[in-house]
Amino acid sequence: MRNKILLVNPWIHDFAAYDFWSKPFGLLSIAAILRKNGFDVSFIDCLNPFYPQMLGVDKPKRKSFGGGKYFKEEIEKPEALKNFKRRFSRYGITPQVFINKLLAVEKPELILVTSMMTYWYTGVSETITTIRNTLPGVPIVLGGNYATLLREHALNNSGADIVISGMGEDVLPALFNDIFGEKIDCFPDSDNLDSFPYPAFDLLSRLDQVPIMTSRGCPYRCSYCASHILNSDFRIRDPIKVVDEINFWHRSFNVTNFSFYDDALLVNAEERAIPMLWEIIRRKIDCSFHCPNGLHIRGINEEVSTLMFHAGFKILRFGLETSHASRQKETGGKVTNKETSEAVRHLTRAGYRGDEIGMYLLCGLPYQTFEEVRDSIAFVKSLGARPVITEFSPIPGTDIWDDAVECSSFPITDEPLFHNNTLIPCRWEGLTYDMYGELKKLARAKSGS
What we know:
By secondary structure, the protein is an alpha/beta fold. The protein has 2 domains: 4-180, Cobalamin-binding domain (Rossmann fold, 3-Layer(aba) Sandwich); 209-444, Alpha-Beta Barrel (TIM Barrel). The chain has helices spanning 25-36, 95-104, 121-134, 145-149, 151-157, 168-180, 227-230, 239-253, 273-282, 302-311, 325-331, 337-350, 370-382, 401-407, 433-444; strands spanning 4-9, 12-14, 40-45, 72-74, 89-91, 110-113, 140-142, 162-163, 210-212, 215-216, 235-236, 257-260, 288-295, 313-321, 357-363, 386-391.
């Protein structure tokens, strides 16, 4: 057995956090690669809602199809957020349970920590500080979205010894050679996603659902999205091999719920989604599939809708973002209202109820008005679908970032905590925080009420 590696999924610090079919996909993909190369891999998930060691703490409510609430404990707000009148919490297991887990593993020779939202960096920092105090002297490497989008900030604020940006599989071979003087012999071809081993989801204490990726990246370049920064290009998998993976988790671990993490699941549907759907139906895989990441409306037609319904796709979310034609063009031109109307018609004819067809609507884009979001909500409801408000979070490096900096009253270039979508960072006189609250009520209200 080669060197011992510990992988850690860190805490979240936020005003609110909810598990929308979340799993540390990238970290567990790295774990699978390391195991394939003979490394002794262990894993601690600070967000695990199922730890039996959390005795005396009310268990968070979970959904039968995967997802739900995390454990949480109110903590002091960072100084930058003191004036925002909402409670701030650490989401995940308690610090003592984490320390006990760290002490229970055989001391590793390297620790890999992942990261997600830029404004969650204080949770990453607390995680790394706890690791360093409990396992002194062990090198700590930070990767993930925050490390990629704000590498300099992560170097100065995370506490990690090494910060890596970009896709882990591209930088790990050189990193391990530098640290251990060893070459990783068995490594997947980054241009061939089917050469990757399945992520090590078996390291999770309980598999309530498994995320699946049929591709990485996205051929579109929406102005508010960081997909092109986090992924070098758009790469796809063989749709039949995707079904092989679904079948593996279903038969080997009795998993019945799957979430698709793709940014572009329905792009080139004739070559990708349609063969996959037909294969799921042909094999009679009795599972439920969920799409929380925002499907491309343009990929929906009569055939795709019917196949999705019969294959067991249950919870659908689509990235409409806005019904205003000018904003649609400005942000990337990935959809029109006519295409949205036709897609909903196809989906309802296939058998979906309107409340199962969720349309994401961005709220709080730079200089976006209350009227624009209100009209978008009304448009979605007029189709019989469900409007789902998603609060805009400005992401460094995206095409809309400069507009966000200009519009925001917060110093978002200096403090990532102000990227937090709960703040509505780009609110202004045309869309105030009170107006945002009214829009949320409008979105939740039943049509005609």
